[in-house]
Each structure stands twice: as C-alpha cells, then as structure tokens.
Amino acid sequence: MRHLIDFTDLSEQEWQRLYRRFEEIAERPGDYRDALRGQTLASLFYEPSTRTRLSFEAAMLKLGGGVFGFSDPAASSVSKGETLKDTIIMISGYANVVTLRHPKEGAAMAAALYSSAPVVNAGDGGHNHPTQTLTDLVTIRRLRGSVGNLRIGVCGDLKYGRTVHSLLRALARFEGVSAVLVSAPELALPGYVKRSCKNLNLTEEPDLRAAAGGVDILYMTRVQRERFTDAAEYERLKLRYTLTPEILREAPKDLLILHPLPRAGEIPEAVDNDPRAAYFDQARYGLTARMALLLELCSLPPFTVKEPEPGGGTACGNPRCITQTEPYLPASGGGVCRYCEHPLVTPPGV
Ligand code: NCD
Fold first, then answer.
1. 260 lines ligand 1 (CB under 6 A)
2. Is the peptide bond before 343 cis (omega within 30 degrees of 0)?
C-alpha cells in the first residue's frame, strides 16, 4: 500500500496488521499519545462529512499529530478555479498524509497521481469509500470474531452507495461470504461492482423482511439524495425500505445491524435500544481504525512522484467521472476508465 484508494489496495498481511494495531490501540490508547508528534494530516473535504472527517482529525490529534485543511471548498482556492492537481501537488508537500473527499468518481485516484504523500480516499462520489469499509470490517471482526463465512444483507441505495461498493469488494476477498442485495430496481448494484465481486455469492431479495430473517449481518444505507438529478425520483425511492422493530421481531437473535450513518429514516430511532443495533459502536470503532491506518501510512518510506505521461487512450463518458472536471488527467487505455471504472466506449468514427 502506498495510497488507500480502495480497500483492495491493502494486502491480506496489511489488513491483519491493521486489525492487530486496532486492537492494541483499543486496549492501551495512552501508549499512542505521542506516536505521530510532528506529523500532519491534510483534510481536504470537497463534500459534506461528519464522521469521516472528524474521526480522521480526532485520530491524528489523539496520536499527537497536527491537522489542517478545509471542509468547505468555497473557502479555498478551489473557488478561484484551482485544479485538483495543483492543490494536491502543493498540499501534499505540507502534509504526511492527505485525506480527500470529493463529489467526482475517481478523484482520489487522480489525486494520487500527483501526490508526494499517501492519499486516502475518504469517499469519491458514488464510487468507493475504503475507510468506511475498514471501519465495517473491524466492527464485524471485533463483534463476531472473524469476517469470513458470513451472510450479509445490504439494503438501500446500492447504486450510489459508495460504502456498499467498497464493502462488497472487500468481502469478496474473504472465504464463504454470501451477500443478499435488497434494493429498488432503480438503485441496484452497478455491473462494474458486481463484476469485481466474483468470489462473492450474490443474490437479490426485494423483500427486506425475508432478507433480514436469513442473514448474520444487516447493513442498512440511506438513499443518496445528493446523487439524484431528479428530486421527484428521490422522493419516490427514499423510504422504500425501513427496518422497523416489527421486522426485527422475526429476525435472528444474534443479528448485527450496521449502518455507515448518517441515516435518513431507514432505521427508526425505536431500533436504537435493540441490543442487535451496532451502528453507534461501528462509528466509535471508526476512530480507532483510522488511528491504526494513520500509524501505518505515516511509517511508509518516502516516495517521489513522477508526472504521468498524457499518452493516448479514450475519454471517459461517465458525467460523474473526475476527468469531466479535470480535463488534463491522462486518459485511460483498455476497456474501463482507470479513475471511475466505467466501461469506455470509443466514439463512433474514431
Ligand atoms: C457515508 C458516506 O459518506 O458515504 N457516510 C460515512 O462516511 N459514514 C454514508 C452516507 O453518506 O450515506
């Protein structure tokens, strides 16, 4: 690992090491008070965030390091038209680690091309969110003992839900995982994510009650309002699925209910006192998991960046891809966009 663009950038050994580190920090947080003294985290959030940004910043402060950045791009030179490339070249020279959240798919991958410090993808549009996956996996392992051999139901916005994309791809690397996909047809899991989850036993179940009855973990997500171009369509789909206490009465006694948060009605507050509700523990573990990740990234040997060659390739047609707003980015060869992973279609006559 040099950057964390998606969870699958981590090798099996790196994941094991991160988990051990997570356990050690959870046991003896005081031992790490000065572990990153003198190091800095750049926190670049081009899109709203509560947990991810604040838990990363708290993680760095708890390790004795410093934090700078912005949570509102309108307050930075981005509002003057500065490119992502220029921002990253400069900021990565000020920091030991750069966390980036951006509304465009593939933004973190693009930033990594120019960054002289490790880049952590803190969410790139509706694409990936690997540190939420790290949070999810440490929660599952801590509360269940292991990640493999489990049945997980994922429910809600599987189309735009970046936490779901990263989580399923990560779970595909463990043995014996089956996933039940619960969504409206309009919000089904994209083909490019399905194709990268070959080792996962995927089934679809439109009935939440039926899905909840047959899984070990239920991962709820909110419908991602900010990704819709049609407000009426969002209104129509937003509460297609609600995990009610009544559904839970029939669900397994040892079910684990997870949610990356924020929620928008799909888990009513009445569920919070159910002993199976683990989403607030999950958010708490996210802080410790990010401390473990920062320790790892800050111990990497320094590297130099080589300006990428512009080269040939095909322009990506996905309107949500980072290449749409940062046109200097080298185009991708092969069949899929290297940034957002959408299939590349050669325009007619080329
Ligand atoms: C998620 C995100 O930003 O993708 N939140 C988070 O990081 N915990 C989920 C969401 O916004 O729905």
1. yes
2. no
Measured CA to CA in angstroms, residue 238 lies from 9, 49, 156 at distances of: 32, 20, 9
Please state which CATH number belongs to domain 7-125+286-298.
Answer: 3.40.50.1370
> What separation in Å is there between the alpha carbon of 297 and the centre of ligand 1?
22
Q: Indicate if the pLDDT at residue 307 is higher than 60.
A: yes
> Best substitution site from 45, 52, 56, 267 to test ligand 1's pocket, by max atoms within 8 Å of Cβ?
52
Domain residue spans in the chain? 7-125+286-298, 130-276, 313-344
Work out the average pLDDT over 140-157: 97
Ligand 1 midpoint to CA 129 (Å): 8
Segment (H or E) for 42: strand 40-45
Distance 133 CA to ligand 1 centre (A): 11
Please indicate whether residue 123, judged by its CB atom, sits closer than 6 Å to ligand 1: yes
Q: Say what the pTM is.
A: 0.96
Q: Into which CATH architecture does domain 130-276 fall? A: 3-Layer(aba) Sandwich (3.40)
